[in-house]
Amino acid sequence: MPVLLYVLAVAVFAQGTSEFVLAGLVPGISTDLDISIAQAGYLTSGFAVGMVVGAPLTAALGRRLPPRWTLSVCLLVFVGAHMAGALTDQFAVLLGTRFVAAVANAGFLAVALTTVTRFVPPGRQARALAAILSGTTLALIAGVPAGAFLGELWGWRSALWAIAGVSALALVAVATLTPSRLGPQEPHARVDLRAELGALRSPDLLCHLALGVLVNGATFCAFTFLAPLVTDAAGLGTALVPVVLALFGLGAFAGVSAAGRLAGAHTRLVLGLGMPALVAGWALWAVLASNAPAVWALAPVQGALSFAVGGTLIARSMAAAHGAPTMGGAYSTVALNLGALVGPVLGGLAIGPLGLTGPVLVSAALAAAAVVLWCAAGRRRAAAPLG
Known about the structure:
This protein is mostly helical. The protein has a single domain, classed as Growth Hormone, Chain: A (Up-down Bundle), CATH 1.20.1250. It is 82% helix and 0% strand. The longest helix has 31 residues.
């Protein structure tokens, strides 16, 4: 794999830590800012709104610029937003900094995904995309538990300062090692923007983007409220929250690694088996939420299934967006973060009538909707006339 993939993965690690770290900081933020758990969870949705806005906007504005400049500016804004967030004591300001950081994060990820597909041969793109996404899963394994640990020791603000520091180091590496030009495939950047937007008329692309919304919505719905699920529902101590987060992350790393190897030739197998398994896993977690051993067992399993399916959907969406060489990464980023927007909102609304198991029940419902859509799309493919 080219060194650039690992450089981008390091940057995605820093940004992924920020995106997921609130799962371990929600209780502390709720107490410090005197807001409800559900309201603190909306910080995740605010981040997702920024991701949805930032991905297509940055990809469209930066499509003719050298990737080194676009990626570096996105990281610079990301660092500044985290410094501002760490200094505020107002929920509205914190929410605003999360939005700005997310816009920068989305722009970086969209350009990074597109950059990968422009210098990696088609047969190796699924593995290359998995390498980039490994930064996210490593964030779950190491970054998020470390952030939760820092939050326990010195408060949630220390986690934001740490993310700003790691992101600054990533900025130096990206600015130094990312080439200004990507070689012979660079002319693709001149494809007309209207033609790229026309790729959204593809039923195959739209189906996989919709599946990404549902599956990622299920993932973020439960993950955002994982800390109170572990402490209040399962009765585990707060010191064990980082451990459960790390187990989820280890499963996610295994899942995205498997997706990188299987997504090319076995997409239907991964999705056809993985999505029903997700439904069963989230439903089982809801039933056994107060059973500590079940939580220990389900955390890595659901992490693996969520990211195996999610990683496969990203690879399939990028392949289906072949008519949008500079915007394809933005489409996938928007779909995944629409899920990250809707999931926590629905989970927060479900806490009132259903208690802390509400988010997990919503996750099961979203995953079930993905299964229904996948089956309906399969029937349409089977009924379509040949030729």
